[in-house]
Input
Amino acid sequence: MQREELFGIVSQVVYGNSEPHAQRLLGVQVALIEQQVHTRYRQIFFTDYIEHYVRHDPCAMSQMVHALYLYMTQRSGTWLLNTYETFVEVALKQTSDVQTHIDIMNDYLVVCV
Output
């Protein structure tokens, strides 16, 4: 129900009217964007990296999954970046365990330098 109300408001702003046709058009566009984001996120296999570095800490795993999801879905400019480098960037910001940082950076130096 709230989504339909939101579509009505947005269609009024975007199309100048909130008729059902304008709302349906907006709904189709939103669904398309949601599908693209979902497809893109599904193609990025961060879970392998997360399990490798923080499998011992379920809280950190959950935090990393959430942070990576937000990073990839809220910043479309990241979609063309290297998945591993993106993981390293987010992991270093989201984890506070020094040994995990050392492990990530050691591997990063081997892989990317």
Notes: DSSP finds six helices and no strands in the chain. The first helix runs from residue 2 to 15. The chain has a mean pLDDT of 78.
